[in-house]
From TrEMBL:
Pathway: Amino-acid biosynthesis; L-isoleucine biosynthesis; L-isoleucine from 2-oxobutanoate: step 4/4; Amino-acid biosynthesis; L-leucine biosynthesis; L-leucine from 3-methyl-2-oxobutanoate: step 4/4; Amino-acid biosynthesis; L-valine biosynthesis; L-valine from pyruvate: step 4/4
Protein name per its UniProtKB record: Branched-chain-amino-acid aminotransferase
Listed InterPro entries: Aminotrans_IV (IPR001544), Aminotrans_IV_CS (IPR018300), Aminotransferase-like (IPR036038), B_amino_transI (IPR005785), BCAT-like_C (IPR043132), BCAT-like_N (IPR043131), Class-IV_PLP-Dep_Aminotrnsfr (IPR050571)
Cofactor: pyridoxal 5'-phosphate
Pfam annotation, one family: Aminotran_4
Family: Belongs to the class-IV pyridoxal-phosphate-dependent aminotransferase family.
The protein's role, per its UniProt record: Acts on leucine, isoleucine and valine.
Molecular functions (GO terms): transaminase activity
Keyword Membrane belongs to the record: no
Gene name of the record: ilvE
Keyword Amino-acid biosynthesis included in the entry's annotation: yes
Organism: Streptomyces luteosporeus
Length: 287
């Protein structure tokens, strides 16, 4: 991904894509002192930009560091990148990390760096996957307890779990992994939140030990507008046995139907379709 034309915003300046490098003795690389965001561009506009910038700053605070840029500066950097690259439908990746001043595990004395990259990226899953749904397999990896890891932050270190789970799921022939939390309740996929449809109502895991996705919040609001009941709570895996439809939500996944979990089939049904359509209208209609 590093060998491309274009620009990346790095610590306040636009630099050529290939030159946006850092030192091998970077604290963020050794000890996972990094946080990031992912945003989508629709028709040249970044969806929910301010919410994502706020979450980046909040994630950094959870890891004990402050961003050296105001949210408005980062917003402007992202918007300018999208404009300069002429991106119509794409993705924006802000990232912040502790630098290379010292290599003790202590964060004291490290500078904080921020970069923003953006690229054209119309669809994460193929349109066939969007139509048919994707297959999930339950992972042996779990979301940790809130006194074990900064579980509410979009912290790079937590994505070890996602990479391990995703790679194992793909090796087993699934598209993505479904993770339980440390208590054994349903949690989320590797980059998206989980919804079940039971008799026309939405049931979604309470976001107490994983990222309360901006798409998740948006879809809950859209369901409210459509008169669809939403229940948030601790869901045991057996809740999957009562569901007629299952879908995932995320900036990259949007509203992604699930066709099977561990081989148990689900329909790409009317509630999933209605919410996927409403979401597609919102992200484009908000232009
Ligand atoms: N959970 C994880 C682990 C994620 O990486 C993401 C994507 N940011 C989400 C949930 C969904 O969050 P959002 O809707 O804000 O993209």
């Amino acid at each position: 991904f590093d060998d491309r034309d274009g620009l990346i915003w790095l610590d306040g300046a636009f630099v050529p894509w290939r030159e946006a490098r850092l030192h091998v003795l970077t604290h963020g690389l050794h000890y996972g002192g990094g946080v990031f965001e992912g945003m989508r561009v629709y028709g040249g506009r970044i969806f929910r930009l301010a919410e994502h910038s706020r979450r980046l700053a909040a994630s950094a605070r959870e890891l004990g560091f402050a961003l050296p840029f105001e949210p408005a500066e980062l917003d402007r950097a992202a918007e300018e990148l999208v404009e300069r690259a002429g991106i119509a439908d794409g993705y924006v990746r802000p990232v912040a990390w502790r630098g290379s001043e010292q290599l003790s595990v202590s964060g004291a004395g490290t500078s904080v760096h921020v970069a923003v990259a953006a690229w054209e990226w119309p669809n994460v899953f193929s349109s066939a996957a969007q139509e048919r749904g994707i297959a999930l397999g339950t992972s042996k990896w779990r979301r940790p307890a809130p006194d074990t890891a900064p579980v509410r932050a979009k912290a790079a270190s937590l994505y070890n779990i996602c990479t391990l789970a995703r790679d194992a799921a793909e090796a087993d022939g699934y598209d993505d992994a479904l993770l339980l939390d440390y208590r054994g309740y349903l949690a989320e996929a590797t980059g998206a939140n989980l919804f079940l449809v039971v008799d026309g109502a939405l049931h979604t895991p309470l976001a107490d030990v994983f990222l309360d996705g901006i798409t998740r919040q948006t879809v809950i609001a859209l369901a409210g507008e459509a008169g669809i009941a939403v229940h948030e709570g601790h869901l045991p895996p057996e809740a999957l046995e009562r569901a007629q439809e299952v879908f995932l939500t995320g900036t990259a996944y949007e509203v992604q139907p699930v066709r099977a979990v561990d081989g148990r089939p689900y329909e790409v049904g009317p509630v999933t379709r209605a919410l996927a359509d409403a979401y597609a209208r919102l992200v484009r209609g908000a232009l």
